[in-house]
Design brief:
The complex is a heterodimer of chains A (217) and B (404).
Chain A lengths: L2 H10 L4 E5 L6 E4 L4 H10 L7 E9 L9 E8 L6 E8 L8 E3 L8 H12 L2 E3 L34 E3 L3 E3 L9 H12 L3 H21 L1
Parallel strand pairs in A: 2-5, 6-7
Antiparallel strand pairs in A: 1-2, 3-4, 4-5, 8-9
Chain B lengths: L19 E5 L11 E7 L2 E8 L7 H5 L8 H5 L6 H16 L5 H29 L3 H22 L8 E2 L2 E2 L7 H23 L3 H7 L7 H6 L5 H4 L7 H4 L20 H25 L18 H6 L1 H13 L6 E8 L4 E8 L7 E5 L1 H7 L1 H5 L4 H11 L3 H4 L2
Antiparallel strand pairs in B: 1-2, 2-3, 4-5, 6-7, 7-8
Helix pairs in contact in B: 3-4, 4-5, 4-11, 4-16, 5-6, 6-11, 11-16
Chain lengths: 217, 404
Amino acid sequence: MSKKVLELLTAQFPGAVLETHSQFGDDTAVLDPAVWRDAALFLRNDPRTLMNMFVDLTAVDYLWRGDVPRFEVVCHLRSLERNHRIRIKARVGDEEGNGAEIDSIVPVWKGANWFERECYDLLGIVFKGHPDLRRLLMYPEFEGHPLRKDYPANRIQPLIPFRDVPNTGKLPPFGPDEGMSFGRQSHDFARSGPGASIDGDEAVSNGRRAGALEERS
Amino acid sequence: MEPLDRELDEAELDLPSEPMLLNMGPSHPAMHGTVRIVLELSGETINKADVQIGYLHRGFEKMCERGTWSQVFPYVDRLNYVSPMLNNVGFALAVEKMLGVTVPERCQYYRVILGEMARICDHMICSGAMAMELGAFTPFLYLCRAREIFWEIFEEETGARLTHSFGRVGGMARPPTADFKAMVRVGLARVLALINDAEKLILKNRIFLDRLDGVGQISQEDALALGWTGVVLRATGVAYDVRRANPYMVYDRFDFDVPVGTRGDNYDRFMCRQEEIRQSARIIEQALDQMPDEGPINIDDPRIVLPPKEEVYTTIEATIQHFKIVMEGIKVPAGECYSYTEAGNGELGFYLVSDGSGTPYRVRIRPPCFATTQGLSQLITGLMIPDVVPTFGSLNMIGGECDH
């Protein structure tokens, strides 16, 4: 049944469907990255395909196989009415992993949002036109993309320093737009406010604490 | 002294007008699993919500690329740690799809029964935890007691209460014990009685119902586009259940209903879960009747299944076979496959890529509650802070699964 979907896709985008196969019964089409979003729109809107269920989006790094382009972006779709599935793939990126860019399909299925963020986070693939392309599972200071094959599994990440804020001391490394801003403000006020004598004592104790920490490290 | 009752002109008061940022989680008691929601509030109404996950990320997919195919089983146990058996079976089915083998019928029934028991545990704990977060502690204890009954059976069968690691490619680790069927029959009746008791405690409670009814609604189209599956999708009225739409194992032989909701709010999600527990119980009863008492549990293929221990110690062939499977792993044909099953939260997919060796090239899990959790910010925008708790609870976000 979904063989028909592959035929429709090939007829709609002649020359852009690079190869098709149905290994293990999963119908697969490898697309030219240039038609990625158009093909997604076609699959969702055409009454013969009606892929209204977004299932999965991920990528695979074929560095060890020596493929160029290196990454394969893999997307699984399903139609609720027709009960058929298709897997579409597109190959991006050079050997170094640069230029791994593809159109975002968030405008087609908004469910692709986190999946694309995760893919960017773990494999470093940039989705053009994504509304909010940030790291999702890793923290912002993380270096590298852990699911790439050239990222060693036992690599140790650098420690993130606490942010040193004048008059306040060390703060956790939250961004300025995160965290409880009102809490910080009252904290600032307590330090620089009327109780000057307390302020002085605290400065000393803060200094002592900082010194002790330095000695230990 | 100033009089206390002087008239206040609110316009003169220096009230802060900018929206307030509030962190909910990651260690908030209602954020089971660890998730952090940065709420932008106007008064108590949520203007914007940024859901941040990843606090339980353990690099599951990276770790899978280091061992053999069989060594993935302990990892999948720790994905959805409320119903590990369903993950075990899901992964085993994915590898078996690539190998092109089907396990014996007795094993399929065994997998179905254990899997449905895990599903009941999953739904019970979700409903119970949600009630507990709304202040109803007693039903949670009732349901924990019910789960304990099933866990004792799991312990008897697998040797472990929670992380069974019981699935194997081509079968199960051990055949069912002699009184497996009797234990499940007795246990199931006790569990259903406890669930009825727990329901009686909350389903007529005005406070509980008011906080569920009409809160956290989502439309069918949105739920589909967000990639929702499982109970949360069925609560919007879409009768999509993998067990019914694409039956795997022996699910096409059972008579069961797919409960659907109408409005897609918290109440529908809660009631769908409760009804699914009863449907799972129906499946278990039918499977117990149909399951053969005799017969092999593992497939007969020395390249996939470990030989019996007695033979490993006494014959050279079995020793070599054991060594090859343990040291090199099962040789899975090169290629890629996507296999999906109905887990506690919805469609649990495994996208596997093999290069023909004993080590997976890529194991991609499609966690059902990853898609569900990304819809959370849409659900709670415009609601009040107290609505976050039941809405989040009814989505049944499991940290281990969502964060990989």
